[in-house]
Amino acid sequence: MLAADEWQIVALSLKVSAVAVGLTLPLAFALAWVLARSRMPGKVLLDALVHLPLVVPPVVTGWLLLLAFGANGPIGGWLERALGVTVMFRWTGAALAAAVMALPLMVRAIRLSLEAVDPRLEAAARTLGAGPWRAFATITLPLALPGVLAGAVLGFARSLGEFGATITFVSNIPGETQTLPLAIYAALQVPGGESVVTRLAAISVLLSLVALVASEVLARRAGRGAHVL
Amino acid sequence: MSFDIAVTLRRARRTIAARITSEAPVVALFGPSGAGKTTVLDMVAGLVRPDAGRIAVGGEVLFDSAGSVNLAPERRACGYVFQDLRLFPHRSVGQNLRYGEALAPVERRFMGLDEAAGFLGIGHLLDRRPRSLSGGEAQRVAIGRALLAGPRFLLLDEPVSSLDRARREEILGVIARIRDELGLPILYVTHDERELARLGAEVVQIGD
Asked: Which region, left, alpha or beta, applies to residue B183 given φ > 0 means left and ψ of -120 to 50 means alpha?
Protein backbone atom coordinates (compact mmCIF):
# COMPACT_ATOMS: atom_id res chain seq x y z
CA MET A 1 0.00 0.00 0.00
CA LEU A 2 2.45 2.65 1.24
CA ALA A 3 6.17 2.64 0.52
CA ALA A 4 8.64 2.57 3.42
CA ASP A 5 9.43 6.27 3.19
CA GLU A 6 5.71 7.04 3.12
CA TRP A 7 5.14 5.05 6.30
CA GLN A 8 7.98 7.00 7.81
CA ILE A 9 6.15 10.23 6.93
CA VAL A 10 2.99 8.96 8.62
CA ALA A 11 4.97 7.86 11.67
CA LEU A 12 6.70 11.25 11.92
CA SER A 13 3.35 13.04 11.62
CA LEU A 14 1.85 10.94 14.41
CA LYS A 15 4.92 11.54 16.61
CA VAL A 16 4.89 15.30 16.02
CA SER A 17 1.16 15.51 16.72
CA ALA A 18 1.33 13.34 19.84
CA VAL A 19 4.18 15.39 21.32
CA ALA A 20 2.40 18.64 20.39
CA VAL A 21 -0.80 17.59 22.17
CA GLY A 22 1.05 16.08 25.14
CA LEU A 23 2.98 19.31 25.70
CA THR A 24 -0.01 21.58 25.19
CA LEU A 25 -2.65 19.73 27.22
CA PRO A 26 -1.63 20.98 30.70
CA LEU A 27 -1.27 24.55 29.42
CA ALA A 28 -4.56 24.35 27.50
CA PHE A 29 -6.30 23.03 30.63
CA ALA A 30 -4.88 25.80 32.80
CA LEU A 31 -5.91 28.48 30.28
CA ALA A 32 -9.37 26.92 29.89
CA TRP A 33 -9.76 26.90 33.69
CA VAL A 34 -8.84 30.56 33.99
CA LEU A 35 -11.17 31.53 31.13
CA ALA A 36 -14.04 29.41 32.44
CA ARG A 37 -13.85 30.13 36.15
CA SER A 38 -11.76 33.13 37.12
CA ARG A 39 -13.01 36.69 37.27
CA MET A 40 -9.63 38.28 36.71
CA PRO A 41 -9.43 41.56 34.81
CA GLY A 42 -7.95 41.28 31.33
CA LYS A 43 -9.68 37.97 30.66
CA VAL A 44 -10.94 39.27 27.33
CA LEU A 45 -7.37 40.03 26.28
CA LEU A 46 -6.14 36.59 27.36
CA ASP A 47 -9.02 35.03 25.44
CA ALA A 48 -8.04 36.99 22.33
CA LEU A 49 -4.36 36.06 22.68
CA VAL A 50 -5.18 32.36 22.99
CA HIS A 51 -7.32 32.53 19.86
CA LEU A 52 -4.82 34.53 17.86
CA PRO A 53 -3.22 31.53 16.06
CA LEU A 54 -6.69 30.63 14.80
CA VAL A 55 -7.01 33.84 12.78
CA VAL A 56 -3.49 35.15 12.15
CA PRO A 57 -2.02 33.88 8.83
CA PRO A 58 -0.11 30.70 9.76
CA VAL A 59 2.94 32.02 7.94
CA VAL A 60 3.00 34.93 10.40
CA THR A 61 2.81 32.53 13.35
CA GLY A 62 5.70 30.57 11.81
CA TRP A 63 7.73 33.73 11.37
CA LEU A 64 7.08 34.82 14.97
CA LEU A 65 8.20 31.35 16.15
CA LEU A 66 11.30 31.80 14.03
CA LEU A 67 12.05 35.12 15.75
CA ALA A 68 11.45 33.75 19.25
CA PHE A 69 12.95 30.27 18.92
CA GLY A 70 15.77 30.88 16.44
CA ALA A 71 19.36 30.40 17.66
CA ASN A 72 19.53 34.13 18.42
CA GLY A 73 15.94 34.46 19.57
CA PRO A 74 15.12 35.15 23.24
CA ILE A 75 13.64 31.68 23.91
CA GLY A 76 15.63 29.69 21.35
CA GLY A 77 18.96 30.97 22.68
CA TRP A 78 17.99 30.11 26.23
CA LEU A 79 16.77 26.61 25.28
CA GLU A 80 20.08 26.02 23.50
CA ARG A 81 22.27 27.20 26.39
CA ALA A 82 20.24 25.92 29.36
CA LEU A 83 18.86 22.64 28.07
CA GLY A 84 20.86 21.96 24.92
CA VAL A 85 17.61 21.73 22.98
CA THR A 86 17.42 22.99 19.41
CA VAL A 87 14.05 23.31 17.75
CA MET A 88 15.15 25.01 14.54
CA PHE A 89 14.81 22.67 11.54
CA ARG A 90 14.11 19.78 13.91
CA TRP A 91 10.98 17.66 14.41
CA THR A 92 10.68 19.21 17.88
CA GLY A 93 10.17 22.55 16.12
CA ALA A 94 7.44 21.00 13.99
CA ALA A 95 5.78 19.80 17.21
CA LEU A 96 6.08 23.30 18.69
CA ALA A 97 4.45 24.88 15.62
CA ALA A 98 1.67 22.29 15.71
CA ALA A 99 1.20 22.91 19.45
CA VAL A 100 0.76 26.66 19.00
CA MET A 101 -1.74 26.13 16.20
CA ALA A 102 -3.69 23.47 18.12
CA LEU A 103 -3.84 25.42 21.39
CA PRO A 104 -6.93 27.55 20.61
CA LEU A 105 -9.02 24.56 19.57
CA MET A 106 -8.01 22.62 22.68
CA VAL A 107 -8.69 25.54 25.01
CA ARG A 108 -12.13 26.03 23.45
CA ALA A 109 -13.16 22.40 23.85
CA ILE A 110 -11.86 22.11 27.41
CA ARG A 111 -13.38 25.44 28.40
CA LEU A 112 -16.81 24.35 27.19
CA SER A 113 -16.58 21.13 29.16
CA LEU A 114 -15.49 22.97 32.32
CA GLU A 115 -18.32 25.47 31.94
CA ALA A 116 -20.73 22.55 31.70
CA VAL A 117 -19.70 21.33 35.16
CA ASP A 118 -22.08 22.77 37.76
CA PRO A 119 -20.07 24.55 40.48
CA ARG A 120 -22.91 23.72 42.88
CA LEU A 121 -21.78 20.09 42.74
CA GLU A 122 -18.34 21.20 43.92
CA ALA A 123 -19.98 23.17 46.72
CA ALA A 124 -21.86 20.02 47.71
CA ALA A 125 -18.59 18.07 47.80
CA ARG A 126 -17.07 20.74 50.04
CA THR A 127 -19.91 20.45 52.57
CA LEU A 128 -19.34 16.67 52.57
CA GLY A 129 -15.77 17.16 53.76
CA ALA A 130 -13.73 17.51 50.56
CA GLY A 131 -11.10 20.25 50.32
CA PRO A 132 -10.91 22.30 47.12
CA TRP A 133 -8.37 19.98 45.46
CA ARG A 134 -10.26 16.83 46.31
CA ALA A 135 -13.50 18.39 45.05
CA PHE A 136 -11.68 19.24 41.82
CA ALA A 137 -10.20 15.75 41.41
CA THR A 138 -13.34 13.78 42.30
CA ILE A 139 -16.09 15.98 40.86
CA THR A 140 -14.89 18.60 38.37
CA LEU A 141 -12.25 16.61 36.54
CA PRO A 142 -14.25 13.39 36.01
CA LEU A 143 -17.25 15.39 34.77
CA ALA A 144 -15.10 17.46 32.41
CA LEU A 145 -12.94 14.54 31.27
CA PRO A 146 -14.86 13.65 28.10
CA GLY A 147 -14.52 17.26 26.96
CA VAL A 148 -10.84 17.35 27.86
CA LEU A 149 -10.23 14.21 25.81
CA ALA A 150 -12.33 15.61 22.97
CA GLY A 151 -10.12 18.71 23.03
CA ALA A 152 -6.98 16.57 22.95
CA VAL A 153 -8.23 14.55 19.99
CA LEU A 154 -9.25 17.73 18.17
CA GLY A 155 -5.82 19.22 18.84
CA PHE A 156 -4.22 16.02 17.56
CA ALA A 157 -6.22 16.22 14.32
CA ARG A 158 -5.35 19.89 13.91
CA SER A 159 -1.67 19.09 14.46
CA LEU A 160 -1.75 16.39 11.79
CA GLY A 161 -2.92 19.00 9.28
CA GLU A 162 -0.58 21.81 10.31
CA PHE A 163 1.24 23.28 7.31
CA GLY A 164 1.90 27.02 7.10
CA ALA A 165 3.53 27.71 10.46
CA THR A 166 5.54 24.50 10.24
CA ILE A 167 7.05 25.07 6.79
CA THR A 168 7.88 28.68 7.70
CA PHE A 169 9.43 27.77 11.05
CA VAL A 170 11.27 24.51 10.44
CA SER A 171 11.21 24.17 6.65
CA ASN A 172 10.38 20.99 4.74
CA ILE A 173 13.12 18.45 5.54
CA PRO A 174 12.39 14.81 4.65
CA GLY A 175 12.80 12.56 7.67
CA GLU A 176 13.00 15.46 10.11
CA THR A 177 10.23 18.02 9.65
CA GLN A 178 8.35 16.65 6.63
CA THR A 179 4.93 15.76 8.03
CA LEU A 180 2.01 14.57 5.87
CA PRO A 181 0.86 17.97 4.52
CA LEU A 182 4.44 19.01 3.77
CA ALA A 183 5.13 15.71 2.00
CA ILE A 184 1.97 16.14 -0.07
CA TYR A 185 3.06 19.68 -0.96
CA ALA A 186 6.54 18.42 -1.93
CA ALA A 187 5.11 15.58 -4.04
CA LEU A 188 2.87 18.04 -5.87
CA GLN A 189 5.97 19.93 -7.00
CA VAL A 190 7.42 16.79 -8.61
CA PRO A 191 6.24 15.66 -12.09
CA GLY A 192 4.50 12.29 -11.79
CA GLY A 193 4.03 12.64 -8.03
CA GLU A 194 0.23 12.23 -8.22
CA SER A 195 0.13 8.65 -6.97
CA VAL A 196 2.11 9.59 -3.88
CA VAL A 197 -0.19 12.57 -3.34
CA THR A 198 -3.27 10.37 -3.66
CA ARG A 199 -2.04 7.83 -1.11
CA LEU A 200 -0.88 10.44 1.42
CA ALA A 201 -4.04 12.50 0.96
CA ALA A 202 -6.17 9.41 1.54
CA ILE A 203 -4.28 8.67 4.75
CA SER A 204 -4.72 12.30 5.88
CA VAL A 205 -8.46 12.24 5.30
CA LEU A 206 -8.81 8.91 7.07
CA LEU A 207 -6.82 10.00 10.15
CA SER A 208 -8.73 13.29 10.37
CA LEU A 209 -12.09 11.56 10.04
CA VAL A 210 -11.30 9.09 12.81
CA ALA A 211 -10.12 11.91 15.08
CA LEU A 212 -13.18 14.09 14.41
CA VAL A 213 -15.62 11.26 15.05
CA ALA A 214 -13.82 10.35 18.26
CA SER A 215 -13.80 13.98 19.36
CA GLU A 216 -17.52 14.40 18.63
CA VAL A 217 -18.46 11.21 20.49
CA LEU A 218 -16.45 12.33 23.52
CA ALA A 219 -17.81 15.89 23.42
CA ARG A 220 -21.40 14.62 23.46
CA ARG A 221 -20.67 12.86 26.72
CA ALA A 222 -19.10 15.89 28.36
CA GLY A 223 -20.97 17.40 31.26
CA ARG A 224 -23.65 14.73 31.24
CA GLY A 225 -21.96 12.61 33.83
CA ALA A 226 -21.31 9.82 31.36
CA HIS A 227 -18.40 7.47 31.80
CA VAL A 228 -15.55 7.84 29.37
CA LEU A 229 -13.74 4.57 29.81
CA MET B 1 -27.33 26.65 72.46
CA SER B 2 -27.92 24.67 69.27
CA PHE B 3 -27.94 27.66 66.93
CA ASP B 4 -26.51 31.08 67.74
CA ILE B 5 -26.41 33.05 64.52
CA ALA B 6 -26.40 36.75 63.70
CA VAL B 7 -25.33 37.64 60.18
CA THR B 8 -25.78 40.32 57.58
CA LEU B 9 -24.95 40.25 53.88
CA ARG B 10 -25.41 43.12 51.48
CA ARG B 11 -26.39 42.13 47.99
CA ALA B 12 -26.88 44.40 45.00
CA ARG B 13 -30.52 45.30 45.71
CA ARG B 14 -31.15 44.10 49.24
CA THR B 15 -29.66 43.21 52.56
CA ILE B 16 -30.06 39.71 53.94
CA ALA B 17 -30.08 39.61 57.71
CA ALA B 18 -30.78 36.77 60.10
CA ARG B 19 -30.73 36.48 63.86
CA ILE B 20 -31.26 32.99 65.24
CA THR B 21 -30.78 32.07 68.88
CA SER B 22 -32.41 28.82 69.79
CA GLU B 23 -32.21 25.65 71.83
CA ALA B 24 -34.99 23.99 69.83
CA PRO B 25 -34.13 20.74 68.01
CA VAL B 26 -35.65 22.08 64.80
CA VAL B 27 -35.40 25.73 63.84
CA ALA B 28 -37.30 26.76 60.76
CA LEU B 29 -36.45 29.74 58.61
CA PHE B 30 -39.77 31.00 57.39
CA GLY B 31 -40.44 33.70 54.87
CA PRO B 32 -41.42 34.60 51.31
CA SER B 33 -39.34 33.30 48.42
CA GLY B 34 -36.48 35.64 47.60
CA ALA B 35 -36.06 36.67 51.23
CA GLY B 36 -32.67 34.98 51.41
CA LYS B 37 -33.46 31.81 53.36
CA THR B 38 -31.19 29.65 51.21
CA THR B 39 -28.44 32.27 51.43
CA VAL B 40 -28.59 32.04 55.22
CA LEU B 41 -28.07 28.26 54.96
CA ASP B 42 -25.17 28.86 52.54
CA MET B 43 -23.59 31.22 55.08
CA VAL B 44 -23.93 28.63 57.85
CA ALA B 45 -22.41 25.98 55.54
CA GLY B 46 -19.51 28.28 54.64
CA LEU B 47 -20.40 28.54 50.96
CA VAL B 48 -21.23 32.25 51.18
CA ARG B 49 -19.28 34.61 53.39
CA PRO B 50 -21.35 37.08 55.43
CA ASP B 51 -20.29 40.72 55.46
CA ALA B 52 -20.42 40.71 59.22
CA GLY B 53 -21.65 38.66 62.12
CA ARG B 54 -21.11 35.45 63.99
CA ILE B 55 -22.20 31.86 63.44
CA ALA B 56 -22.00 29.27 66.20
CA VAL B 57 -23.62 25.86 66.19
CA GLY B 58 -23.61 23.60 69.24
CA GLY B 59 -21.13 25.89 70.93
CA GLU B 60 -18.56 25.80 68.13
CA VAL B 61 -17.81 29.06 66.35
CA LEU B 62 -17.84 28.56 62.58
CA PHE B 63 -17.62 32.20 61.59
CA ASP B 64 -16.87 35.38 63.47
CA SER B 65 -16.08 38.55 61.58
CA ALA B 66 -14.83 40.19 64.79
CA GLY B 67 -12.52 37.30 65.69
CA SER B 68 -11.48 36.57 62.11
CA VAL B 69 -12.84 33.03 62.29
CA ASN B 70 -14.03 31.56 58.99
CA LEU B 71 -13.91 27.77 58.82
CA ALA B 72 -13.81 26.27 55.32
CA PRO B 73 -16.98 24.37 54.35
CA GLU B 74 -15.21 21.01 54.69
CA ARG B 75 -14.31 21.83 58.30
CA ARG B 76 -17.83 22.73 59.45
CA ALA B 77 -19.31 19.20 59.52
CA CYS B 78 -22.73 20.31 58.37
CA GLY B 79 -25.07 17.90 56.66
CA TYR B 80 -26.51 20.11 53.93
CA VAL B 81 -29.43 18.76 51.94
CA PHE B 82 -29.76 21.20 49.07
CA GLN B 83 -33.08 22.15 47.55
CA ASP B 84 -31.73 20.96 44.19
CA LEU B 85 -30.18 17.89 45.91
CA ARG B 86 -26.91 18.01 43.92
CA LEU B 87 -26.35 14.28 43.76
CA PHE B 88 -23.16 13.56 41.81
CA PRO B 89 -24.34 12.42 38.36
CA HIS B 90 -21.20 10.43 37.53
CA ARG B 91 -21.40 8.31 40.67
CA SER B 92 -23.84 5.57 41.61
CA VAL B 93 -26.19 6.03 44.56
CA GLY B 94 -23.86 3.92 46.69
CA GLN B 95 -20.85 6.01 45.67
CA ASN B 96 -22.80 9.20 46.42
CA LEU B 97 -23.65 7.87 49.87
CA ARG B 98 -20.04 6.90 50.57
CA TYR B 99 -18.53 10.19 49.35
CA GLY B 100 -18.78 12.04 52.65
CA GLU B 101 -18.55 8.88 54.76
CA ALA B 102 -15.07 8.14 53.43
CA LEU B 103 -13.93 11.66 54.33
CA ALA B 104 -15.46 11.82 57.81
CA PRO B 105 -13.20 11.16 60.82
CA VAL B 106 -14.15 7.84 62.43
CA GLU B 107 -15.18 9.46 65.72
CA ARG B 108 -17.74 11.63 63.96
CA ARG B 109 -19.49 8.80 62.11
CA PHE B 110 -22.63 7.69 63.85
CA MET B 111 -24.08 5.30 61.29
CA GLY B 112 -22.81 3.04 58.54
CA LEU B 113 -24.04 2.63 55.00
CA ASP B 114 -26.28 -0.37 55.77
CA GLU B 115 -27.86 1.37 58.71
CA ALA B 116 -28.47 4.57 56.76
CA ALA B 117 -29.85 2.64 53.80
CA GLY B 118 -32.22 0.78 56.13
CA PHE B 119 -33.19 3.94 57.99
CA LEU B 120 -34.10 5.66 54.71
CA GLY B 121 -35.34 2.64 52.76
CA ILE B 122 -32.85 3.05 49.92
CA GLY B 123 -30.92 -0.22 50.17
CA HIS B 124 -32.29 -1.43 46.83
CA LEU B 125 -31.08 1.70 45.00
CA LEU B 126 -27.33 1.51 45.67
CA ASP B 127 -26.31 0.47 42.15
CA ARG B 128 -28.59 2.96 40.40
CA ARG B 129 -27.53 6.26 38.84
CA PRO B 130 -28.97 9.42 40.44
CA ARG B 131 -30.73 10.45 37.23
CA SER B 132 -32.82 7.27 37.26
CA LEU B 133 -34.30 8.00 40.71
CA SER B 134 -37.78 9.36 41.44
CA GLY B 135 -38.08 12.64 43.36
CA GLY B 136 -38.73 10.92 46.69
CA GLU B 137 -35.89 8.43 46.18
CA ALA B 138 -33.41 11.15 45.24
CA GLN B 139 -34.48 13.19 48.28
CA ARG B 140 -33.82 10.24 50.61
CA VAL B 141 -30.44 9.56 48.98
CA ALA B 142 -29.45 13.22 49.48
CA ILE B 143 -30.44 12.98 53.15
CA GLY B 144 -28.51 9.72 53.48
CA ARG B 145 -25.40 11.22 51.88
CA ALA B 146 -25.52 14.09 54.38
CA LEU B 147 -26.05 11.78 57.37
CA LEU B 148 -23.20 9.43 56.41
CA ALA B 149 -20.73 12.33 56.36
CA GLY B 150 -21.07 12.39 60.16
CA PRO B 151 -22.53 15.88 60.48
CA ARG B 152 -22.90 17.69 63.79
CA PHE B 153 -26.01 19.46 62.51
CA LEU B 154 -28.28 19.45 59.46
CA LEU B 155 -29.28 22.14 57.00
CA LEU B 156 -32.43 21.14 55.13
CA ASP B 157 -33.55 23.42 52.29
CA GLU B 158 -37.20 22.80 51.42
CA PRO B 159 -36.68 19.05 51.55
CA VAL B 160 -40.29 18.16 50.78
CA SER B 161 -41.63 21.04 48.68
CA SER B 162 -41.11 19.27 45.34
CA LEU B 163 -42.82 16.05 46.44
CA ASP B 164 -46.41 14.83 46.28
CA ARG B 165 -48.35 14.42 49.50
CA ALA B 166 -47.58 10.77 50.17
CA ARG B 167 -43.82 11.29 49.62
CA ARG B 168 -43.94 14.47 51.68
CA GLU B 169 -45.37 12.61 54.67
CA GLU B 170 -42.73 9.92 54.27
CA ILE B 171 -39.78 12.37 54.21
CA LEU B 172 -41.22 14.44 57.07
CA GLY B 173 -41.43 11.18 59.02
CA VAL B 174 -37.74 10.55 58.30
CA ILE B 175 -36.81 14.07 59.44
CA ALA B 176 -38.82 13.63 62.65
CA ARG B 177 -36.92 10.39 63.31
CA ILE B 178 -33.58 12.15 62.71
CA ARG B 179 -34.68 14.77 65.24
CA ASP B 180 -35.76 12.18 67.83
CA GLU B 181 -33.33 9.30 67.32
CA LEU B 182 -30.13 11.03 66.23
CA GLY B 183 -30.58 14.28 68.13
CA LEU B 184 -28.96 16.44 65.45
CA PRO B 185 -29.87 20.14 65.51
CA ILE B 186 -31.74 20.96 62.31
CA LEU B 187 -32.00 24.27 60.49
CA TYR B 188 -34.94 23.93 58.16
CA VAL B 189 -36.11 26.16 55.33
CA THR B 190 -39.71 26.15 54.18
CA HIS B 191 -42.60 28.38 53.25
CA ASP B 192 -45.23 25.86 54.27
CA GLU B 193 -46.73 26.31 57.74
CA ARG B 194 -48.03 22.72 57.90
CA GLU B 195 -44.44 21.44 57.84
CA LEU B 196 -43.57 23.71 60.76
CA ALA B 197 -46.40 22.28 62.81
CA ARG B 198 -45.57 18.72 61.83
CA LEU B 199 -41.94 19.08 63.01
CA GLY B 200 -42.70 21.24 66.05
CA ALA B 201 -40.19 23.75 64.79
CA GLU B 202 -39.28 27.02 66.37
CA VAL B 203 -39.91 29.63 63.68
CA VAL B 204 -37.53 32.40 62.72
CA GLN B 205 -38.89 34.94 60.27
CA ILE B 206 -36.55 35.93 57.43
CA GLY B 207 -37.34 39.06 55.42
CA ASP B 208 -40.37 41.29 55.93
From this structure: left
